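User: Sequence recovery, please. Input:
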């Protein structure tokens, strides 16, 4: 394997960030999480809405629920997937780039709103 450029490394980091967020938090992928976790939103005493994650079932189903509700865990697997894709299918780089641009814009937007 040849050395990876800094540009490609940063693209992979941002792509992994975005894919992880897509899997763990985004509404569009809730259909993947629904068999394993129940997400509710409840206000706390100050009125701030808190995301509550309740893991459903036992055994393999519970394990999947724990995995899909953990951004650290999904981050490892999404990074592994994207790096393997990058190495074995170089033509997949446009997908990495799209996820990276979306990840960078999400990061910037979150900093603007939540400082």
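Assistant: Recovered sequence (115 residues):
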């Amino acid at each position: 394997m040849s050395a990876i450029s800094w540009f490609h490394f940063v693209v992979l980091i941002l792509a992994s960030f975005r894919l992880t967020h897509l899997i763990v938090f985004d509404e569009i992928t809730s259909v993947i999480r629904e068999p394993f976790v129940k997400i509710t939103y409840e206000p706390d005493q100050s009125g701030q809405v808190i995301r509550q994650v309740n893991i459903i079932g036992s055994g393999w189903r519970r394990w999947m629920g724990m995995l899909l509700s953990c951004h650290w865990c999904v981050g490892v697997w999404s990074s592994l997937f994207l790096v393997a894709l990058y190495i074995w299918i170089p033509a997949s780089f446009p997908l990495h780039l799209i996820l990276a641009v979306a990840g960078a814009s999400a990061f910037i937007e979150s900093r603007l709103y939540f400082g």
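The chain has one domain: 6-109.
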